[in-house]
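hey so i finally got around to running the thing on that chain from the lab meeting. sorry it took forever, my laptop kept dying and i had to restart like 3 times. anyway pasting the input first so we r on the same page abt which one it is
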Amino acid sequence: MIFVAVGTQFSFDRLIQYMDEWARDHDEPVFAQIGEGKYEPEHMQWARFLNSDEYNSHIKNANVFVSHAGMGNIISARANQTPIIVINRQYELGEHRNNHQAEGLLWMGKLPGVYTADSQEALYAQLAQRATLECPAETDNENRQKLVQFLGDYIDSRIS
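ok and heres what got predicted. didnt touch it at all, straight out
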């Protein structure tokens, strides 16, 4: 099963539409948390919002987690040892207040178990490789330290 989540702060109809089209053409079950978006999927199960237990259960049971490029979802994927594909919201399309998610894709893609996509084609290419995507155990202390360092460096660069 593929779990898709857009978070609770902003809608992300583009991602939901991409995944609905993908689900139409593939036999793998897909479940999406779609938030307040206007687009309602026809080819996958969905809910607007999930409580914490439902959200964690979907991540734990997923073979792949597809998400907006939010750090909370990346951390949740790592904690559940689920590979995650992140796609950024685009400021130019009115999907976010700024382009920090696009800027973050470069360093997010360096994190173990995090795969990035900046377009429908790139997302579908990552999904085609889903059987081989890996996520290291959350208890991998060296990689946890790398994640903390990446986050600290990124935050410092945004503040300075």
